[in-house]
Amino acid sequence: MSDHPDGSDQAADHDLPIPYRERISTYYQTLGYGAPYRWAHYADVPFAPLKKPLAQSRLGLVTTAAPFQPDEGDQGPGAAYNGGAKFYRVYSGDTAADHDLRISHIGYDRVHTTATDSNSWFPLPLLRDLAKSGRIGELALRFHGAPTNRSQRTTLEQDCPELLDRVREDQADAVILVAV
What is the pTM of this model? Predict the structure, then answer.
């Protein structure tokens, strides 16, 4: 069924992608930084093809979700942005245990997103099921949290090397990065 006035199968004229990059650049300037936000992008990236099938690989998980902090206010689905729930150091958790991770510390579109499916930011239960069914290999013993401090320098010089060290300690063959 079409919403377009001419009856075609095209989306309605108002149904356009949300200009996140433009919004963030404008917001960055509004905060007084002067120049627009410069997005990190690289011509050379350190990705590599899998050396064995995913069903035979040990899988690591890295997320930008934050552990729930009861003293830091509303952090539930659809909660307003909550900078108090942010974390600033890489953390790790046991993949065999259940964890309460949230995303209220992330700036995402709360008007068009319900944020009710925790698998979209922390798919550990789903990954456990996939490993149990044999669709993926075993999970690494730990998952890891990557801070979202909005500093490319901190991310590149501090957080990424620490995450890489931890993933290597876990002997992961592949890593899923779930960045909200």
Answer: 0.81
